[in-house]
Design a protein that fits this description.
49% of the residues lie in helices and 10% in strands. The protein is α+β, with helices and mostly antiparallel strands. The strands form 3 sheets. A 4-stranded antiparallel sheet has the order 3-4-5-6. It has a 4-stranded antiparallel sheet with strand order 7-8-9-10, with no helix packed on it. The chain has a two-stranded antiparallel sheet with strand order 1-2. A hairpin with a 4-residue loop joins strand 8 (83-86) and strand 9.
Length: 461
């Protein structure tokens, strides 16, 4: 039998899904984002934003009045600070743990989906409650204008960085992309590419957030190898997996309580206090195993000895995934206002595009407005064999003679364009000489230069 309980919607929400209980509740009370139902099998805590049960607390009573009436007095504080349940001999007080603390603990355990759901649900509820509240709206605007980060900004930045450490590049970068510039700057990714960005690294701001990722991101290749090492160390055999699944099934309620802590309890004689009853991070790790790698420590990144031999092809594939994701991210954010170190961003972007072989994106970048360091950009294009793009860069930097000389050498076969599936040369079916002649002719048509089209044509044979 399933008992369905309808609830009034939260302020600003259109509807609220009903609660589903296995029995008639003895008491039902709401406070803030949570609803508590006390049944004969214990206390059930529900999230009002989605009507999903987030915690079960074992509780039993021996009260003749409750058994006779099948009800138990309950009341919720209008401010959402607590819910009280009463028998004839005691009062049970339920206090919500701070959302920020819940999110932090979930991130420590790498429970990213639960942490992000909690952040977004909390923000939606807060925005709904702020509708029409001029004071709250003004306070949020003042925080943004003053560059003051709210807790959910810090939480999302921390989640994004931890996802990057798990090689979930696209997902992590999407979280970072949605953050305001006073919380996160794309230049904070420079530490992943120290060989390219050595000249910019001393000026990169260091923001620790909650410190779960260390002081800064490690180099990309090191990040990938460490992730593979950690996965190999924590991998289990099918037999171990079946045993763990059996244990998890037996302890499901207990694990839900540990992983998604929402309320804590206390009797009338001993009121609950999170700071005194919550276990320390060290004790939690002893209870649940190693919940996070040493990436959560600011003093160390490598979690395991380097005896693990990573498959080079797997490492290279993940490195390329990381480069591709970062390049797409930088392409999207470079046009946004308030970007720090745009010259470094464009220089890194050009290098990554060359590394992943996206000739079309390289040409688009160098031909349009960009802040890439000229010498570094030219060196990158030469090393990658992107001679047509180099000529476009030189034209854009008002060096037409050098651009025409580059096209002349490309048309003559003195320079060989690297292969690519995209870009102007790829569209010309690999005929780099024809592309060079056409580009030079178009450039000369735009203004007189010292190298004539005829010289280029003769150079091309």
């Amino acid at each position: 039998m399933v008992m369905v309980v309808s609830l009034p919607p939260l302020k600003g929400a259109a509807v609220c899904e009903p609660l589903q209980l296995s029995m008639t509740p003895l008491a039902l009370a709401a406070a803030g984002l949570f609803v508590v139902a006390l049944c004969d099998d214990g206390v059930h805590v529900f999230d009002r934003t989605n009507s999903r049960e987030v915690q079960h607390i074992d509780y039993s009573h021996d009260d003749a009045y409750v058994r006779l009436t099948q009800r138990l007095p309950a009341a919720g504080d209008a401010g959402g600070s607590c819910i009280c349940l009463a028998t004839s001999s005691q009062v049970l007080r339920l206090e919500p743990i701070a959302i920020e603390q819940q999110v932090r603990e979930l991130l420590k355990r790498k429970q990213f989906d639960q942490a992000l759901d909690l952040i977004h649900n909390t923000q939606q509820a807060a925005q709904a409650s702020d509708l029409g509240d001029a004071t709250a709206i003004a306070a949020d605007a003042a925080d943004a204008a003053g560059g003051r980060a709210q807790w959910h900004h810090i939480a999302l930045a921390q989640a994004g960085l931890l996802l990057l450490l798990e090689c979930e590049f696209e997902r992590g970068l999407q979280l970072l992309q949605d953050l305001p510039p006073f919380v996160w700057q794309p230049c904070q990714l420079f530490s992943m590419f120290p060989d390219i960005m050595a000249g910019w690294l001393p000026r990169v701001p260091v923001r620790s957030y909650w410190g779960l990722h260390g002081q800064q991101l490690p180099p990309l290749a090191e990040l990938v190898i460490d992730t593979l090492e950690l996965r190999a160390a924590t991998a289990t055999t099918p037999r171990q997996q079946r045993w763990r699944q059996g244990q998890q099934s037996k302890l499901q309620l207990q694990q839900e309580h540990e992983q998604s802590v929402t309320y804590i309890t206390a009797s009338k004689q001993q009121m609950a206090n999170y700071n005194s009853t919550a276990s320390s991070p060290d004790s939690r790790q002893q209870q649940h195993g190693k919940s996070s790698s040493s990436r959560g420590s600011a003093t160390s990144f490598r979690a395991l000895p380097s005896s693990y031999d990573a498959d080079p092809s797997v490492v290279e594939a993940l490195v390329q995934q990381g480069k591709t994701a970062v390049a797409a991210y930088l392409s999207a954010v470079r046009v946004q206002p308030s970007m720090s170190m745009l010259d470094g961003i464009d220089t890194l972007l050009l290098s990554l595009l060359c590394d992943v072989g996206d000739a079309a994106a390289v040409e688009l970048l160098v031909e349009g407005p960009n802040a890439a360091a000229a010498a570094a950009a030219a060196a990158t294009l030469r090393a990658a064999g992107r001679w047509h793009a180099l000529a476009l860069l030189l034209m854009n930097n008002r060096q037409p003679q050098r651009a025409l000389d580059t096209w002349k050498s490309l048309a003559a076969g003195e320079l060989v364009e690297s292969a690519s599936t995209t870009g102007t040369v790829a569209e010309a079916k690999g005929d780099a000489a024809a592309v060079a002649v056409a580009a030079a002719a178009a450039a000369m048509a735009a203004g007189p230069h010292r190298v004539s089209t005829q010289v280029l044509l003769s150079g091309g044979g």
